Amino acid sequence: MIEEQTEGVTESASTQTQSETLAQEIEEGKAAAILAYVPFMCFVPLVKMRQNSFALKHGKQGLILFLVEIVALIFLLPKISDLFWGFVIIACLALALAGILYAVQGREWKIPFLGDLADKFRI
Prior knowledge:
Blueprint: H1 2-35, H2 43-48, H3 53-75, H4 78-105, H5 114-120
Helix pairs in contact: 1-3
């Protein structure tokens, strides 16, 4: 019985220590995590706070957000936007034609990148 109580105390102390360590890591990484969402500053946690998992996670998300912002800014330029959407329409038509050809032949075909996404749909 004493051994069981000792194990419970040890587990409780271990959990408390992990919790304190996590809280300390979060507190140390808060400033870098905040900077992760400011354009161009997302590199701060990725470079300076690599050992801090809290800041690193926010840095990765901030980098993805930054890349999306850059793409959005590029599409604000009319000529580039027109070229991109023209390419998308041509690619869609080509993929649709390929899908029709495979269907006529009685073969299954997975569209690159989009096929995996379609497989995840539960209809």
